[in-house]
Amino acid sequence: MLDSANFDVALPPGRSLDIYVELHNAILDHRLPPGTKLSEEEVGDAFEVGRTVVRNALQALAYAELVTIARNRGAFVARPSREEANEVFEARSLVEPRIARMAAERAKPKDIRRLRAHVKKEHKALANSDLATALSLSARFHLEIADIASHQLLGRFVRTLMSRSSLIIALYWRRPDVACEKHSHDALIEALATHDGAAAEDIMNSHLVDLRSGLDLSERDLKGVSLKQALRIE
């Protein structure tokens, strides 16, 4: 689960920040599908706050490119186009292999322990056939790699790309599972543990090619859910 320390955008104050974090997590965890309408009234009712507080949170999410705000129509979870999906994965293929090499050069034993604990959670989600959780954990694994690389500018770029990728995967993923993730992530951890930068770079590149091949870039409708269900509010 993400908290306010993980964000790079200008964050709203007070209750608006709480709403921002909850909606942000719900979007990246695939609980709020792309295209979902986020009405100020419904969000306000869910969090028991006024429209001004909600509006501040939605504007911050729009700045983070997770929400689009259309004049006279309201706010919606962003719905990336097929063209953007291709561009995002092209950008990831340029940046993340280099990030993986840097992480291999800088990884410490505590980093490897953290990654292995993270991958155990991925394996558990896969064993439970919990695809949404597995995909969310997969995205966060890539953020962990970027954190280990300790390159602030590229790290911010990767976080932006991962946010867009989460929306893209929610829209266009066609595989029934993410079993390939398990093997690639395990191999990446071993490369980092042995400080093999060249291997880490190659594995990450192959992993991204495989992820891209799992997308079906045709338009589709996603099943909607209520806001309270998505936010797990009773």
Strand neighbour order, sheet with most strands: 1-3-2
Mean pLDDT: 86
Q: Quick one: overall form?
A: elongated
Intertermini distance: 19 Å
Q: Could you give the order of the helices and strands?
A: HEHHEEHHHHHHH
How large is the share of residues in beta strands? Answer: under 5%
- Flag low-confidence runs: 1-7
Structural class: mainly alpha
Give helix % range. Answer: 55-70%
Count helical runs.
Answer: 10
How many β-strand stretches?
Answer: 3
Radius of gyration from the alpha-carbon trace, in angstroms: 18 Å
Report the sheet with the most strands, covering strand number, pairing sense and barrel closure.
Answer: 3 strands, antiparallel
Tell me about this structure.
The chain is mainly alpha-helical and 234 residues long. The protein has helices at 14-28, 40-47, 51-63, 82-106, 109-127, 131-149, 152-172, 179-193, 197-213, 227-230, and strands at residues 37-38, 67-70, 74-77. Strands 1-3-2 form a three-stranded antiparallel sheet. A hairpin with a 3-residue loop joins strand 2 (67-70) and strand 3 (74-77). Helix 4 runs antiparallel to helix 9 (197-213).
Structural topology:
Elements: H1 14-28, E1 37-38, H2 40-47, H3 51-63, E2 67-70, E3 74-77, H4 82-106, H5 109-127, H6 131-149, H7 152-172, H8 179-193, H9 197-213, H10 227-230
Antiparallel strand pairs: 1-3, 2-3
Helix pairs in contact: 1-3, 2-3, 4-6, 4-7, 4-8, 4-9, 5-6, 5-8, 6-7, 8-9
